[in-house]
Amino acid sequence: MRPDLILIGVVGRPHGVRGLVRVHSYADDPAALEGFKALVDDQGRNWSLRWRGADGVAELRDAQGQALADRTAAQGVVNTRLYVPRDALPEPEEEEFYHADLIGMEARENGQSLGRVVMVHDYGAGASLELAGGMLVPFTRACVPEIDQANRVLTVIRPVEVAGEEGRGVGSPKTPEPSA
């Protein structure tokens, strides 16, 4: 896979019998997927997309402009990842980052490497960075005060809840004080 490609969506299950599919968009505005000149998959095939209804139902067309013919053809592209070139995306606002820009960065705390960012999770309550080895770090200014994109390094200050014993895992539970 080309390193300049950014994952923008994934093809889901077929919808109906006429070749339509559900597409899960990773764009802030799913309508933006229609505006890209070409979406590229893992095999280097170019696609265009047109939304056809609510709930992410879309028509995919190949580079020759042919839509998926039927449900069988739609089933054949389930789980296809759709990418766009990085330069086709707008530059993020200040203090905003594309996940792809963070993945692979080295995380350092007090000059010591904690590993590289392998995944960015965001389940709605705020993003967290998963480092190699499984450590999760809240992606907040307090925990990640500095990001050096040019050198692909970010500074981490782990809160006590993340640091834990010997710098790993979750902190130990407190022993309750006896009541008087």
Describe the fold and architecture.
This protein has 180 residues and is mainly beta. The chain folds into two domains: 83 residues, Beta Barrel (Elongation Factor Tu (Ef-tu), domain 3); 69 residues, SH3 type barrels (Roll). The protein contains four helices and twelve strands; from the N terminus they run ββαβββαβαββββββα. The strands form two sheets. The chain has a six-stranded antiparallel sheet. Strands 10-9-8-7-12-11 form a six-stranded mixed sheet, with no helix packed on it. Strand 1 and strand 2 form a beta hairpin. The radius of gyration is 21 Å and the shape is elongated. 19% of the residues are buried. This is Ribosome maturation factor RimM. Belongs to the RimM family. It is found in: Cytoplasm.
Number of self-contained structural domains: 2
* Parts with pLDDT < 50 across at least 5 consecutive residues: 165-178
Structural class by secondary-structure content: mainly beta
Strand residue content: 35-45%
At the fold tier of CATH, the topology name of the largest domain is Elongation Factor Tu (Ef-tu), domain 3
Instruction: Write the H/E string, N to C.
Output: EEHEEEHEHEEEEEEH
CATH superfamily of the largest domain: RimM
Assembly state of the chains shown? single chain
**Termini distance?**
65 Å
What order do the helices and strands come in, and which of them pair?
Layout: E1 5-15, E2 20-25, H1 32-35, E3 39-40, E4 46-51, E5 57-62, H2 71-75, E6 81-85, H3 99-102, E7 106-109, E8 112-122, E9 127-131, E10 136-138, E11 146-148, E12 153-155, H4 160-163
Parallel strand pairs: 7-12
Antiparallel strand pairs: 1-2, 1-6, 2-5, 3-4, 4-5, 7-8, 8-9, 9-10, 11-12
